[in-house]
Design a protein that fits this description.
The complex is a heterotrimer. Chain A is α/β, with parallel strands linked by helices. Helices cover 28% and strands 25% of the residues of chain A. In chain A, β22, α12 and β23 form a beta-alpha-beta unit. The two termini of chain A are 37 Å apart. Chain B is mainly alpha-helical. Chain B has a single domain, classed as Winged helix-like DNA-binding domain superfamily/Winged helix DNA-binding domain (Arc Repressor Mutant, subunit A, Orthogonal Bundle). Chain B has 4 helices and 2 strands. Chain B has a two-stranded antiparallel ribbon. In chain B, α3 crosses α4. Chain B is elongated and about 60 Å long. Chain C has 3 domains: 185 residues, FAD/NAD(P)-binding domain (3-Layer(bba) Sandwich); 52 residues, no CATH class; 158 residues, FAD/NAD(P)-binding domain (3-Layer(bba) Sandwich), CATH 3.50.50.60. In chain C, the strands form 7 sheets. In chain C, strands 1, 2, 5, 6, 7, 12 and 23 form a 7-stranded mixed β-sheet that branches. Chain C has a 5-stranded parallel β-sheet with strand order 14-21-15-16-17. Chain C has 8 helices and 23 strands. The chains are: A alpha/beta, B mainly alpha, C alpha/beta. At the A-C interface, α2, α3, α6, α7 and α12 of A face β4, α2, α7 and α8 of C.
Chain lengths: 657, 97, 430
Amino acid sequence: MSKFVERQRIGVYVCHCGGNISDYVDVKEVVNAVKDYPGVVLAKDFIFMCSDAGQKMIEEDIKKHNLDGVVVAACSPKLHEMTFRNVVTRAGLNPFLFYHVNIREQSSWAHRDRKYSTKKAISHVLAGIEYVKLASALEKIRMKAEKSVLIIGGGIAGIRAALDLSGMGINVVLVEKEPFLGGRTARIWRTHPNGKKGVDVVRGLINELKERDNVVILTNSEVTHVEGFVGNFKVKVHVNPRYVIKNHPRMKEAIDVCPVTVPDEFNYGLTTRKAIYYPYEGAYPELPVIDPKACTRCGECVKIVGDAIDLSQKPMDLEFKVGAIVVTTGFKPYEPKPGEFGYKEYGNVITLPVFDRLLDLSEGGNKLIYNGKEINSIAFIYCVGSRQIPNGSNGKVNEYCSRYCCNATIYRASQLKRKYPHIKQYHFYRDIRTYGLNELLYLKAGEEGAVFIKYPDEEPPKVYGEDGKLIVESKDVVLGGDTVRTKVDLVVLVVGMEPYDTKKISDILSISTGKGGFLQEAHPKLRPVETLKSGIYIAGTAQAPRTISETLISASAASAKAASMLIKGEIELEPRVARVDPEKCNLSKRCVEVCPTGAISFKEYEGLGTKAWVNEAMCIGCGACTAVCPTEAIQLNTLKTTQIKRMIEAAIKGLER
Amino acid sequence: MVLSEKKELTVFTYKKLKGIKMPPKELVEKVRKATIIQNKIKAAIINSPKTVPEIAKETGLDTHVILWYVATLLRYGLVEKVEKTDEGYWKYIWKGR
Amino acid sequence: MSEETYDALVIGGGIAGIESALTLADMGFKVLLVEKEPSIGGKMALLSKVFPTLDCASCISTPKMASAYHHPNITLKVYTEVLEIYKQGEGNFEVLIREKPKYVDPQACTACTLCEKACPVIVPDEFQFGLRGRKAIYIPFDIAVPKKAVLDIKNCIFCGQCERVCPTGAINFLDEPKEYKVKVHSIILATGYKLFDPLKKPEFKFGQFKNVITSMQMERLLSPTSPYEGILKPKDGGEPMKIAYFLCAGSRDLKLNYPLCSQVCCMYSIKQAQLLLGALPLADVYIFYIDIRAFGKGYEEFYQQAKAMGVNFIKGQPSLLDEKSDGTVVVTYWDSNDNQFKVDEFDLVVLSVGLWPNGDIAKVFKNAKLELDEYGWIKRIDENGNPVKTSIEGVFVAGTASGPKDIPETIIEANAAASQAAKYIIKYKR
């Protein structure tokens, strides 16, 4: 190892962040406090260091003043560390001789006392300077990346992503928990804007998918374990048996002969199905499935189709490698609590998804019948399970708006009007959020005679029974708060979206969820479909409530990001890894014991004998080994023990000023 | 970089090429009016800082016209903010030549 | 001049176009990014902070602008228009491009601002929405990319001052427009929107009552590069204490024959209200609305936060009555809570102007038809299959060109368009 020389020509740049920093940190004082600090050649401030003008200034300074290190004190490194690394690289300096000090989240946004936050900023900048003094020029680690992507969730988001990625020449494994693709969209009666049925939307996408030869579809399957990192994820998938292993010309008979009938979950129990079934005409894969919980193993079906059915089929566990992962696990509709707006209390109070199935199943006739009675009037109650107001006693509530519901319900209103012109509609809402072009739906529904009643935020309507009918009673804000009572045959609760099992998937993938339990993006604008874990992307309603087209768009976006990472078949990793100085290693083996990824082993060093050695591809840079090494022989490339000590000393000095 | 002294300014070549003798009359008139306003503002605040309503009083110009010019002059560094009055008005002073 | 070939042409250098270009370029495709204004950045570069995180807009847009400018796979042309596009088969478009003369050599210009200072002509600054003036030769705005001067020849009096003071001899009156053809394999339309022009609705008294401003003007006032260096009443330069927002100005308006909702006005008004309460702690803010449409991720919570901060939300459509001599605006409105008409006075009225279509791009397609919807937004032809597809195969749409959209959605859609363009290029590039 060559003799290390400390950096002596450091440039320090302090950003105003257009007031975000300068309102609470005296940036001029920060500049003055560090400009004569040993090793610092120049210190400057600027309104937006990340702007092109700011970048250009740094670039020119590096060249003109022959800087050998750069400190930028600005926002969070999450936001712009990469930006400034690129600037430094453009000027011909190694990007790891740059350090990003966060004086926004940690100083100006954290404290209201300008004097203190300025002092803290100075202290952090001094620590940053000490870091750079001892920093080493490093090269990124280049590694081969698997040109394949795992997509978790086979709803429309997952299918769209599979189409896009495979179209860009990337292999795809699409894993769906249910026995069929299509997710919630397949259950929609008619979709905005052209009245296409949900199943047809799904079918359109699947027809395209069938033509792809680089997509593997695993239905009835769940991802159970993921390890590794971007470019090289190791994935385990548990595949449940389908029992139907190939098609047969008499398959329909085999289904008909099944003696078991159970409620059909596809139709929320409005109909029944057999133990061997398809959820709907044209479902994909085009193979029925046997529901093992319902099946009595009577063997009637086997008598008809023979070896097309194998009731002894066992589950499988698959293991494979992928370069990136797209999570599209979708949503589930909010399930109202018993008694909420009369739910489960009165038979004719149902949720919007159930209503959708009812409409779809009633396509044939011109009467809408529920529970054996004709429906001539319907009340829709909006914001059920959305925009809930916490009052201290109602437990966990959904404070968010579910976005799709106003549009979906009002589109239903018009479609309903077309099919059943005699049905009277009353819409009890808080705000009608038919945003953007969807406003036309609202206008149309109003023109067609749907009645809209705005209820107060804090005072939702009451639902109760009277003479065999349902009464919805509510204040009407637009009428100055007068109470309106409406007698109806059916109450439809417009329920919001809730994330579907995001807890489980976020644990498996070590990604985070945000408020409301939806998967959290790295940044809503800078990195809207990425997670904080490199190589893992999110799309669709697992991330936030969305409409169909918004879901598809986000899936395409996630595909673009995953593709741009993998398309070259090679990725660059941060050189944040541990390295061993074999001369210092005394073979304590403690590093091997604490390493969580098994990256440390031993090898022969020329003239030194056997010493510890780090496999850089496996090292995650956690630093556990550096803490236990008795001789400080193992060190993180990007954060040496000496650096930490010097940074702490400088930071304390800064605070004592 | 030193420009060649002999080389004719391209603006003159352009005017010759396009046959422009004088710029459009309305434009010249606009520039003349604007110059008068700027000079009035300058006279009002060259020695002591004043608020927009105070400048208006002194120059007889509309307050919104003053503010528009003051904002423009701020951009080019010819005017600076000094302090805010209790009524929420900034005082401005002339900084240019 | 031999024809240059690019994998993708991205029309429009706002945040959508920048994002599409960057994603394609990161995949290794060669991109031509064309912007008609002298700087990229579009509307977003001129915003203050963005909802619901209150990040500064510049913190997000400027680094992306710089990346697009420096990316080895992106060729950036500002002050440039696309005149004609001919589709000559799948994966093959011929594009006629016109670079407007800047009269300033961008290679030589150092943005020292000496020319600006020397120029005697002052005209309204379009990048500050008329709140102050700029010179006939000017740098578009502080964080412009590229940051170079450009001469507005229509307002030039040919005095030659700029040319005399320029230290690098960058001024060149003999600059000519350049027209040339390029070949591209795919196209992304990121042409954005137009702000509703409040002069279309005389009852708003915009321009007449000086203290009636647009929300975009308020964005400028709230930004760190505020033209007034603060939030002041345009009428007389004082700080406003009572501010009213009129939502749906130029949206959901049947009289204007424009019934669409602009999707972002509720949220940006709520954001501005929060910023105003931060900047002017004694101020009162009133928001007049029809429906509050806080539908995106974290938006409803942001709305509730504004209510908790003391922003007054009033359901009702107000109208302007009168202007007092000190510029105070008298407003009358129906208060549905109290079931009666009320009259109130405000120091400042902000019109939350809507997003209107910018469908001009349709006419550059000479031998294929780019379909627009009945209001002029670029039509998505496969809404529930592949939403970024337009009526022309190989031409994709990103951001507000296909309808009002907030920034996160715009950026997501820009990436979606990039992914569709990438697939198309791979399929048809020969």
